[in-house]
Write a structure and sequence with these properties.
Structural class: mainly beta
Number of strands: 12
Number of helices: 2
Strand content: over 45%
Number of domains: 1
């Protein structure tokens, strides 16, 4: 599916970058079992990163995340996958992080080799709402301007994205290796 973004004014937001250690060194273990676990890692300023791994699939939430989401939420891809090492935080004009962009490496379901690369744009949870979720996906192999497109999605959609109500969408061209996504967000996140 191809979705275009509405034209708008130049982006006023800025970026900050932090590292996500693939070995999770320095991260606090919250839960673990034979299939994976949950870790709290350093993020941007006082906005942590919650990394979850289960059955060789990664899920990441950002910011002041509600406990129910840390325990029961999981957003990833159907095939085995892993994340990149660099997180791009999109900051609003006051310097508050509103979105995070993280590259996922998704295995080709036919060969199990790394095939797809997807920039996953997520909403950053704020202290007053606790909501972090995937806002959108950009196929990094099928779009020459993938980083720019992901920033546009982050800046235009993340701050007001309705986690649990609105489904994350693909933006730009989507190639054959941009795998099916999977999302489980707890029902209790839906508030009237």
């Amino acid at each position: 599916m191809f979705l275009a973004l509405a034209p708008g004014a130049a982006l006023a937001n800025s970026s900050a970058y932090t590292d996500l250690d693939p070995e999770l060194a320095g991260c606090e273990t919250i839960a673990s079992d034979i299939a994976g676990g949950t870790w709290k890692c350093e993020g941007y300023r006082d906005y942590p990163v919650y990394f979850k791994e289960g059955d060789l699939r990664a899920s990441v939430f950002f910011g002041h995340v509600a406990q129910v989401l840390i325990e029961d939420g999981f957003e990833s891809f159907g095939p085995f996958n892993s994340t990149g090492k660099k997180i791009e935080w999109r900051l609003d004009d006051s310097g508050k992080p509103i979105a995070a962009i993280l590259r996922y490496f998704v295995s080709d379901p036919e060969t199990a080799a790394n095939g797809g690369q997807v920039l996953v744009v997520s909403r950053v949870a704020q202290a007053d709402d606790g909501l972090s979720c995937v806002v959108g996906y950009v196929d990094a192999r099928s779009n020459d301007n993938a980083n720019e497109l992901a920033r546009r999605v982050a800046d235009q959609d993340a701050a007001d994205f309705a986690c649990g109500y609105t489904e994350a969408a693909w933006y730009g061209e989507r190639g054959a290796l941009a795998a099916m996504t999977s999302s489980h967000l707890p029902e209790s996140l839906r508030q009237e």
